[in-house]
């Protein structure tokens, strides 16, 4: 019967493997198992531990059973999107502790169970959108997913978000919620998430927009809201919000604005002091620009530095007001993009107030030469460096050059995809212009109208048959998709480093086309030939210099000199002597730890038990904990009448005793007083004292000091002399 059992097991395994191979041929001997779009109505048998990626998307699977994935213990990614899954056994994912990506989107799940995810400790990406659940339950289904990075959820039937639904999630790179029919949001529900880099929410119910924003100000860096009809909100957006704010970017997509709602939004968004960037993409504005200017102005300056508007639809845009009165609100704006929005002009009065703007993108609009004269008038855009006017209705290049020459700091100009047709011989450009894009402008030739200051020129997709322009500073030249039959000469562009001539009519190269210095005659510097090597050598040299400086500093006590000089300078600012009321001790005792037994058990007992007793300051007992030791030394010496040094061979080898000597050297001996008492515990040579204490070495040789005697009779005399010195 044992043989029969073994045979039965082997036969079952073999049949499962055959079934897997038949259902999904790509799974055979592969870690990546692609079973998508194969008409499967169940998860195939025979999945093994060798599989790391299993793709079962776009099938007809209705249920995930406990045993289906039991053996796939090394699975990293499980793709089950676009099936018909309505049931998942509670322990279906129990063996998938290494799973990092789980996609259950676009199925028929009517609820979300926390039990499913209880053992998915490594899960980083979870996609649950496009199912049929109405809510996430009464608690959090995600409390065990500590490594979750991105979460996608919601569907057209999703209607309720409750407090506690996101408990356990602390950090998300991306949170995507389809809340198109969200009708109930309990305030505080999203507040438990500490950090979200990017959140996208599809939200049509404008009544809950403000509550969601208030809960996200402290956590979301970039909030993207789609399909909302922006409400006319009066209540503050920062009320009851956790500070500091983190939101830096706010994007509206496919949103609907009115004059009233956009006026109120401008006022309220100023309260979000962290907000730096606003975007409106594929939105609609119903109104004529009749905004509440008085309220906007009285609300103060905005902190936003970047505004992007793309493909906005303004009904009856030709009736739109010129935003007169907004001048005070645009002074701090740095970058402005209004693209594909049928802009045909900017009033000169308004343009002159963009005083800080450095980047302006008006591509794909209705700007024409006549209106450009008003848009780029004298004194407008004074700080502008980059201007994009591509894909407009510009025609006369000479006029474009004249108008843009009014921009004193213009560096980069893109006027591609306009129809110039002809190009004059002479043009007046900004003297600072270095980058010019004239691609797809139908010009038949290049003339001296092109500014000689350029470093980058793009004249791709034109009708050029030759290029011989003298451009001494040019580094990059793009001539793609023209009709060139010969290469441009090397002499007119001596500094050229990049040349693109793809899709022309070149069929041969002549010797003259490569005129210039021969390769053998060119002498390049070592830096030009071996840039990486030279940079590496410089870095190595800098490292060695730093290493030498550190070694020299260590040997010659540079750090010591710096620290002690600083301490000495601070001490010099203090009075020479502390006021009598601040003197707490008869003497501060400086000694080596190796001499502590004699100091603490002999000297301290003798002096502190004398009649009257002496008050001694010891570092072990009287220093203030947590205070820098040099400050402790300085304060203790200043609060003591005398400083008593117990000198020994150990003393001069102690680093901290050196600091105490240092300060005494500066503070006591320089004052020519007798506040220092020297006790020689054992014979010591003056040369053993560090050379930098030259005055102390001299005092050792000239000043009377007390020497600890060996005999008891002499010791009594020693104590009398020491007590006398302390009293003096």
Automatic annotation (TrEMBL):
The keyword Disulfide bond applies. This is TLR21 protein. GO terms for cellular component: plasma membrane; receptor complex. It comes from Oriolus oriolus. The gene is Tlr21_1. It holds the Pfam family LRR_8. GO terms for biological process: inflammatory response; innate immune response; toll-like receptor signaling pathway. Disulfide bonds join 27-33, 348-377, 427-449. It is found in: Membrane. Its main location: membrane. The keyword Transmembrane applies.
